[in-house]
Structure formats: C-alpha cells, structure tokens
Amino acid sequence: MMDGSVYKIIELVGSSKTSWEEATQNVVNTASKSLRDLRVAEVKELDVKLENGKIVEYRAKVRVSFKYEKEE
Fold first, then answer.
1. DSSP readout, the chain?
2. Kind of pairing, strands 54-67 and 38-51?
3. pLDDT tens digit string along 6-30?
4. Rounded Cα distance, 15 and 45, in Å
C-alpha cells in the first residue's frame, strides 16, 4: 500500500461581466459540479475582453487541483 496522496491539476478559464472575483468563483462553482475533492484554486492570469475601448468581460485563468483516484 502506498502512503501519501496524488493530486491532478487542470487549468480552466472563467468569465464574468462583473469582476475577476466572480470569474474565479464561476470556475470553482463549475469545477465542483464534476470534480470531487477539490483542494486548491490558484489564479494564474487575469485579463479583460474589450469592445470599442470598453471592458465587456473579465476573465480568470485558474489552476484547480483535486485528489487523483486510481481507476479500478
């Protein structure tokens, strides 16, 4: 039997018309619906989408880690 745990990391991009915080929350909310045992969400990059010189969308690139479970 192996001691310790193994975690997988994936990168997701969330968006929001309101804020980077909401874009990040959207990533976590969505990931938690299909991934079990989420551990850490790390914001790697923030940017905005522009139209006619105005911000129309906030985007957050987020790395999410979760416990890796070996397939039986």
1. ---S--EEEEEEEEEESS-HHHHHHHHHHHHHHH-SSEEEEEEEEEEEEEETTEEEEEEEEEEEEEE-----
2. antiparallel
3. 889 999 999 999 999 999 999 999 9
4. 12
Please give the structure tokens belonging to residue 3: 């001691």
* Rounded-to-integer distance, Cα 64 and Cα 7, Å: 10
Note if the pTM is more than 0.85.
Answer: no
* Single-letter residue type at 39: R
Distances (CA, A) of 30 to 18, 36, 51, 56: 17, 12, 26, 21
